[in-house]
Structures are given as structure tokens and as C-alpha cells.
Amino acid sequence: MSALLKPLSRRGLIGFGATAGAGLLLSGCDGLASNDKLSKIVKSGEAATQRWQRLIGRDGLAKEFDVSQLSPDFKVNGTHEPVEAEYQAHKAENFANWKLAITGLVNNPMTLSLDQIRRMPARTQITRHDCVEGWSAIGQWTGPQLGLLLKAANMKTNARYVVFKCADNYGGEASKGGAQSTSLYYESIDLVDAFHPQTILAHSMNGGPLSVGHGAPVRLRVERQLGYKQAKYVMGLDVVSSLDGYGSGKGGYWEDRGYEWYAGI
Amino acid sequence: MATMDATAETAPPPAKPYLFHRHALAVRVTHWVNALAIFLLIMTGLNIFNAHPMLYWGEYGANPDVARQWLQIGADTNAAGQDFGFLRIGSLTVETTGVLGLSTGSNGAPSYIGYPSWATFPSYRDLATARTFHFFFAWVLIINGWLYLAFSLASGHLKKDLLPKLKELSIGNIVHDIVQHARLKFPKGEEAKRYHILQKLAYGGVVLVLIPGVILTGLTMSPGTNAAWPWLVELFGGRPSARSLHFVFANLIILFIIVHLLMVVLAGPINEIRSMITGKFRVDPETAA
């Protein structure tokens, strides 16, 4: 190493030092991450991504796989089992008295039992679940298209989003970092995704009833977005014109903790 | 500038050092925008990788799919009860305590994390912030890349300066250039005004292979892009494979940057860095070797 360094001029060493120093300076500059002005600028990337993806494939379909391509072991992530009394009571009754409520900006608010949801015309799709952390798993999902439920509820003209209210108080996960705290999980999507043909409320997975780990009795599948959008333990749908009424108003549990609302990337 | 170029072509090389206009303004601007974007993309990328420090081949890949996993950074406890960090590639495991898997965090405490705090932005585990910065600078990289490519095609920079000529690709020429580099003998005089074969392969490779490769594999980790352009992710064999290739491309870019900076330092950093800021490169007359 010293032989290699010999031909270095003093100026060379200064140049090298300056470059290395810049690197260390930047990694020391975590302040950049919490700078409000900078944060606003870098967050503009999300809107650009959403507009771009809607431009190139507003009606695009997520790839559907063959049964032979299913993940042998589909990892349970997030909440493994809600501990809340209300959920535990439903679970004890095998969800016989559980009801999905559709409320908000609809002309025909309704509640549906699990049995009613199971008897609706269903779509079965084998898709890849892409987690924000980087892992992927392929599973088969069956359930009615969300659009079908929304049509039955007859949305008002000022409806813009569908909010999914979940049963679990979620406490976060170390690998996702950032500020995490316990609060009811929720998610939201806009009407483009709500009426996408692959957006379903799944009651079955891999041919059997949805397990507790994967979100029984029903979970959302919105196939063109990341795993944290696939809300589990859905108790109700609220059709709204603004996301302000929920959490910090960012449209979801993870969104309130810094993650993108548009999770197509 | 035009007069100097004309003189250089007709008259013998002047005996005194002179400044030569080496880099066009568009190349200089896009170089530094690119440098900033890639620097942040790498540091945020390593933070994102830390959320799941494992890589797989195929259409699916998660913790239970050990057969598909080809790389892992992690921490374990040895027989003596001491924790250690490791990097595993295939069946090869290397202990990496202090750097990978187990290192000292920005707060001075031991940190069980893939890449260490000094290599990531933010320096602590924060997937949300790392992603926001990563995707913003990905847009910068892509737009800047298109501007560079448009300029380079229109001006002839790509063909004239970067693409190797057939005769330059002879084994003899490549070996000669490797030997010259190994002996730290860099071109002097008029020969210093053009790129030689290793430079052409390195710069051309980064501009035409590694950066497009890292962008395309990055895009195919996005479920939205994959629904719009299903053929692209198929090209890489599925999202887990695309993620693996994204990591490989990024590491090759890191390797390039290390060699590039080393070469700048060895070849005369003031002259090299000035030429990329003001465009002016000092040409020293050739002296008897």
C-alpha cells in the first residue's frame, strides 16, 4: 500500500481527503432528513411517480401466476393476530356475527355478513405480494371485486377515496424504522384503484379460508401497490372525499409514519 | 477556443503547458448532477437494503425461501457466546464484524444492521425517509441521464470520445493500457487529450450499461411499473431477481467510483477536477521518458 501511495502528490492527498470528507459530512448530516423545505422537495417525487404510473398504465393488470408458482410458505407480516377484545370475540365465533360496514359518501349504506360476502361473485387471482422491505411472495386470493360492493352501496358524486378500517392496533416493526406507535391500522386508495378489476376483498387464500395471520375474515388486495396497502382484518369501508378525518390525515398507518400514500413503487 | 484547436491541428505541439478545452458544459453539468444523485442513491439504497438484507433469484423470495437466497448480511452468536456480523454469498460465509451485520451505530452503541451507519442515509434505520430520497434522486438520475444522452448523441461525444474503435479493442492494446495503468504511467502531451481503451470501456460501460441497468432493475421492483410494463420484469426473471441485479449493478457502480476517484488522484487531481468544473485541462508537453 505504501508503494502505491508514494507517487501521490500532496495535492493528491488533499483532493482525496476532500472527497472522503464530503462523504463523512453527508452521512453526518442526518439533519437533511428532517429539514422541512428539503423534505417538501423530495416528497414531490411521489406525485411525479403516481402521475407517471397512471400515464403509462392506468388500466394495467398485475401479472397473474400459475398454481405451480405459489410460494410454498407465504410469510405472515405485520400483525400476526389482533389482541383486541372485539376481534377476539369475532374469532371465537368463527366470524359468524362479524359484519362489514360500508359507510360514508354512499346513498345506500350497508352491512354485509361474511356469508353474504362469500356468496358474491368472486374473482380468483394468483399474484405477487411485494413488501416495501424488499421480499416478495406469491399467493392465490379469492373474493368479490371492491367495485361490485361500491356499486351496490351507490357512491355519491363527491366520493374520492375508500378508507379501510382495520381491527388491529399495530405497534410497528423494527425493520421499517422511523417513528412508530400503536394505533388502529387503516389504509386508503383512490377510485382508480378501487374500481381496478384486480382490487378485491379477499376472503380466501390458496384455496382455503383466509387465516388469522393473513387477515381473517377479509383483507384488501390492491395488486399494483406494495404490501402495506393490502389492509388485513378489514372491519369497514368508509367512502370519503378527503383523508383528513383519519390518523394524521396521510391516508394510512404507515403513511402517517412517513411512507408514500401512493405505494406503486 | 476554436483558434487554439486549429493551431493544435496544424502546428507541432507547443513546448509549453497549455489549457485545452476538454469537457463541454453539458457534460460537466450532467456529471456533477449525476455524481450528487448517485451518491445519495447509493447511501439511501444501502439503508433500504438494510430493511431486508437478503437477496434471492426467481419470481418470489422471502425469509422462508432459503433455497432461493444467494446473499445475506446478518449477525449471529458464536460458540463462545460472542455476537458477530457476517456476509454470506452462496455457501461462502465471511465474518464482517465492525462493518457488515454488526457495527457501531451513529450513537456509539453496537448496531445489528446490514450496512453500517456511515454508509447509509439517514445514518439510522429509516426506510421511509430513505425511500423518499431514493425515488426523488432516481427521477434526477433519469432526467439528467436523458439530457446527457441527448447531448452526447447530438454532439457526437458518445461516438467520438466514448465508443471504442475496433482497432482499440485488440488484446494487445488492452494489455498495453492495463500495463501502463499498473505502472501508473498516464498519457502525457497530446495523448492525454483523448480517452484510452480502459477509460472508454469504464466510462462507456457506466453510461451505457450500469446506469441503464440499475434504472431498469430499479423500476421493476415497483408493482405499479410491473403492471404497466410486464415485459420489463420478465426480462430480469421476476422482482426478486431484479432486486438482486439492482444490487449487483449498484455494487459495480460503487467499484467504478472507487477506481475513478483513485485514478483522478493518481493522474493529478487538480487538473482532472478543474477540467470537470471549468472544462480546461492542462496539457503538459511530452518529456523524454
Give the beta-strand count of chain A: 11
Strand content of chain A: 15-25%
Mean pLDDT of chain B: 92
CATH class of the largest domain in chain A, please?
A: Alpha Beta
Global geometry of chain B: globular
Radius of gyration from the alpha-carbon trace of chain A, in angstroms: 23 Å
What does this structure look like?
The complex is a heterodimer of chains A (265) and B (289). Chain A is of the alpha+beta class and 265 residues long. Helix content of chain A is 28%, strand content 23%. Chain A has helices spanning 2-5, 10-28, 31-34, 36-57, 85-92, 114-119, 146-153, 191-194, and strands spanning 99-104, 110-113, 123-130, 136-143, 161-170, 183-190, 200-202, 204-205, 208-209, 219-221, 234-240. A five-stranded mixed sheet of chain A has the order 2-1-11-5-6. Chain A has a four-stranded antiparallel sheet with strand order 3-4-8-9, with no helix packed on it. In chain A, a hairpin with a 5-residue loop joins β3 and β4. The longest helix of chain A is centred in the first third of the chain and has 22 residues, at 36-57. With 289 residues, chain B is α+β, with helices and mostly antiparallel strands. In chain B, 54% of the residues lie in helices and 12% in strands. In chain B, a hairpin with a 5-residue loop joins β6 (103-104) and β7 (110-111). The two termini of chain B are 30 Å apart. At the A-B interface, α2, α4 and β4 of A face α2, α3, α7, α9 and α10 of B.
Keywords:
heterodimer; A: 265 residues; Sulfite Oxidase, Chain A, domain 2; five-stranded mixed beta sheet; four-stranded antiparallel beta sheet; 8 helices; disordered N terminus; B: 289 residues; alpha+beta; Fumarate Reductase Cytochrome B subunit; 2 domains; 10 helices
